[in-house]
Amino acid sequence: MPALSRRAASLGTENAFVVLAEVNQLIRSGKDIVSFCIGQPDFPTPVHIQDAAVEAIRGGRHGYTPSAGIDELRAAAAASMAKLRGIDIAPEDVVVGAGAKPFIAYAIASTTDYGAGDEVIFPVPGFPIYESQIVAHGAVPVALSLRESRAFAFDPDELAARITPRTKLLILNSPQNPTGGLLARRDLDAIAAVLAKHPQVWVYADEIYSKLVYDGEFVSIASLAGMQERTIVSDGASKTYAMTGWRIGFTANRTLAPVFTRWITNTESCASQISQWAALAALTGPQDEAEKMRARFRVRRDLIVQLLNDVPGFRCASPGGAFYAWPNVTEACARIGAKDSEELRKRLLHEAGVAVLADIHFGPRIEGEGQHIRFSYATSEAAIEAGVARIADFIRKATR
Question: In principle, which of 75, 106, 112, 350 could form an S-S bond with 263, CB 3.0–4.6 Å?
């Protein structure tokens, strides 16, 4: 059998889907599982967005579009992103892709050279595809720790210490997956002050949860003085409008937009035309359904945080955005004799019938930060109540 390339062998994955496959296998075997694994809204895509897709199909909009996306959607995305961030974005600065995820790869491939020792700084815990794509594109991953004591921001001094002449890209994510943390203006001001001394460093601002903020305000680093030109603003329709399967994301950066367009031409050709017209309806149509979803997520956030803090050995901060809870379970592990969060996760799945993800699914565990697990509360209030009740009962019974 011919050998695989080193690149293919090193390519990571998104563990939420790995655990989900395990969960589905258990469900097929007859196990009753309450799952908090997958970060996607459990609501249907709003009807007016569905109608726009049907209209596109019936109207014969079935073919290729320009690789950068249809003009109407680029203009709408530019207006939407600019308004939320308080900056000027032109339609030609925007590129539409098959989801926001491909732009992680395009950004790394466009700012680093394979095997040259170029470094990319990324948050830990963080979306696992960051590190996977850094390695796959022959760059050097440099982890930057998010600290629970700093509301899951990182120490600017730690950032400054990690930047070298080889640093080409810094990945930021706010609101964050998996912590739900929100970078405040003071955090971003400190980051910008560090970056002012290192003009060679691009910033990839993963802001896919920008419209799912519950406490405080959303601030983009692109809105700070001197930062927009060097920042790749990444957003999309998936989380805000319950459109994960429609696969529409968009980025904005004037310099890199033509480069990203060429990447799309070389890979996916273009995003689905039908999905693009649906996303246009999402951005330009009524926003009341999206706001109702955000309000429900906030109710669920408050519910799951309250319930988790009543579980013996759990300590859960209230996340400022997204739809993830990231409780510290160090004491719970000690109570039941679990060596770490991954053993706790497995026991919760097989003994309590509750599926969560462990901190190691989001990068190396940070020394001194304890043990954590992730809950996606993009599920019903009834499921949240039932799942957390099972966990509390399990911890009480398993306590030594």
Answer: 106
Q: Where do the DSSP E strands lie in 264-372?
A: 324-325, 354-355, 357-358
Annotate 327-347 with b (16+ C-beta within 10 A) or e (fewer).
bbbbebbebbebebbbebbeb
Residue appearing with tokens 């209230």? 318
pLDDT in tens, 237-277: 999 999 999 999 999 999 999 999 999 999 999 999 999 99
pLDDT tens-digit series, residues 300-332: 999 999 999 999 999 999 999 999 999 999 999
Residue 97's beta-bridge partner residues?
249
Residue closest to 234 by CA, chosen among 323, 179, 172: 172
Sequential DSSP letters for 15-60? HHHHHHHHHHHHHHTT---EE----S--SPPPHHHHHHHHHHHHTT
Pick the CATH number of 61-284 from 1.10.10.200, 3.40.640.10, 3.90.550.10, 3.40.50.720: 3.40.640.10
Residues 383 and 16: their CA atoms lie apart, in Å, by 18
- In CATH, the number for domain 6-44+289-398 is 3.90.1150.10
CA distance 123 to 39: 18
Residue 7 binned pLDDT confidence (cut-offs 50, 70, 90): confident
Q: Please, which residues bridge with residue 96 across strands? A: 250
Query: Can you read off the two tokens belonging to residue 276?
Result: 């693009």
- In CATH terms, are 6-44+289-398 and 61-284 the same topology? no
The residue extents of the domains of the chain are 6-44+289-398, 61-284
Q: Are 377 and 297 in contact (CB under 8 A)?
A: yes
Cis peptide before 178 (omega within 30 of 0): yes
Residue 323 in contact with residue 377, Cβ under 8 Å? yes
Q: State the Cα angle at 192 between 235 and 14, rounded to 5°.
A: 40
The dihedral through the CA atoms of 145, 150, 152, 157 has a sign that is: negative
Pairwise CA distance, residues 342 & 67, whole Å? 42
Q: What backbone torsions phi and psi does residue 205 show, to the nearest 5 degrees?
A: -95, 95
φ/ψ of residue 309, rounded to 5: -70, -10
- Using an 8 Å Cβ cutoff, are 250 and 257 in contact? no
Note if the bond before 175 is cis, omega within 30 degrees. Answer: yes
Of 290, 271, 285, 287, nearest in space to 74 by CA = 271
Are 168 and 112 spatial neighbours (Cβ–Cβ below 8 Å)?
yes
